[in-house]
Amino acid sequence: MMLRSRIIPFLLLSGKGLVKTRKFEDPKYVGDPINAVKIFNEKEVDELTLLDIGATASGKGPDFDLLQDIAAESRMPLCYGGGVDDAQTAARIIALGYEKVSVSHAALERPELVREMAARVGRQSVVVTIDVKKEGIFGSNYRVTSLNAKQKHKIDPVAFAVQCAELGAGEIVLNSVDRDGMMQGYDFELARKVRKAITIPMTVVGGAASVDDLRTLTDEMGPIGAGGGSLFVFKGKYRAVLISYLRP
Amino acid sequence: MVMLCIIDYGSGNVAAIANICDRERIPYIITDDLNQFETATHFLLPGVGAFDPTIIKLKESGILSALETEVMAKGKPIMGICVGMHLLANGSDEGDQPGLGWIPGHVTLIDTSELHKPPHLPHMGWNSIAGDATDPLLQGIDMDHGFYFLHSFYYDAANPGDVVATSTYGSVLPCIVRKGHVVGAQFHPEKSHSNGIRLIKNFVGLS
Q1: Alpha carbons A160 and A7: distance in angstroms, whole number
Q2: A122 touches chain B (CB under 8 A)
Q3: Does the CB of B64 have a partner CB in chain A at under 8 Å?
Q4: Which end of chain B has less Cβ packing within 10 Å, N or C?
Q5: What span, in angstroms and rounded, lies between the C-alpha atoms of A78 and A94?
């Protein structure tokens, strides 16, 4: 036996509820976060990630009361992202009972934040999520985005992952904008490039449609985090809401 | 009767532990009030973050000297979790402060030279454990399924006899240490589903 890959439901918070997007747009309401956490407790989920997709864009920041209620209910490891732009906020979220805090837009604006967070809460609790979108005539270029893919950044995703690892990130999450909610498989090309460039743990999310997709990723690149959104909240092609969990 | 004291000094997930106690009907208090320590039968010492700020917080709050009385003089069981475990050692490469020295050992960085492909550090995720199945702490634990780990430093115990269980990551790392009624767990039992609940129940069964 050895360290196993982590199969991770990614839940998107919007206000007090959960939504699921496609290509970071068209949010569909999928339920109540506390209820989802209770279900995932029963299914003994490896790890759970919560991303508040409105926290940065609206300027409101994290909903600490809601995060506290969610953490008190959870018997599985938690990562939270959304609206975190200083080390003090990260420390406050860790104190609520989250194992890891993720930053994205704020780290792109000011990479030094990653170092400050690592000094405050420890490297193991610092996650940088990189939202990546394909561009160019043949979709051959990768572009880092933030603010729900509305803002584009010049830096190359591999270079940004390396920079964050050097500054003290404990994990990189690669989130594919183009594959979000499309259920057509992970982007292996980018995952391989980033895996070769850094030694810290990483998680890939965007595109998982089946247990086979999870297995293909974990077989090739494990131990790795295999994230899923639609896979764990929808059933069938009409996207009927059903919270479920699968492990390869 | 059991009264578990979950020490709330602003480090670690006391809410998740309390939630498990509610569910399992384990009587508990969450407190940093030293006057309440006397009423407790068992202590849980959570911990997240770095070694030095954590132990300084414990010292300055007076919790440490109260625990000296309750745990070392009166013999009440204590379990340290993650950095709370590391505090039980003599010291740590992560900081300059001395540890409690209740279980001889030193906290040191995991050696990744035998990990031939990434990821290296931190050790993040679910790992199996191996250990002495007759130890009261391991009763009913699914050792293959194991526990959730999130750390880069580990407890290098001085006496093999104090190591109840190990996990393998790069090398064989102690993940549960115990010297009599003093226990340390490297992983997060409060985030390890049924195995974690079981471990907490086994701990409060210690006397």
Answers
A1: 24
A2: yes
A3: no
A4: N
A5: 10
Can you tell me the distance from the alpha carbon of B81 to that of B46, in angstroms, rounded to the nearest whole number?
A: 5
List per-block mean pLDDT (blocks of 10 residues) for chain B, which spans 207 residues: 93 83 95 94 90 92 96 98 96 95 98 94 98 95 97 97 97 97 97 97 95
User: Among all chains, which residue has been given the structure tokens 């594959």?
Assistant: A179
CA distance A96 to chain B (A): 7
As to burial, measured by CB atoms within 10 angstroms (0-12 exposed, 13-18 middle, 19+ buried), residue B23 is: exposed
Helix spans in chain B (H): 14-24, 34-37, 51-60, 63-67, 83-86, 193-204
For residue B11 the two structure tokens come to 């480090």
Q: What is the pTM of this model?
A: 0.96
Residues of A in contact with B131 (CB under 8 A): none
- Residue A139: which H helix or E strand, with range? none
Whether chain A has a CB inside 8 Å of the CB on B171: the answer is no
Question: Two tokens at A172?
Answer: 């990189």
Q: Is there a contact between B48 and A94 if contact means CB atoms under 8 Å apart?
A: yes
How far apart CA B153 and CA A150 sit, in angstroms, is 39
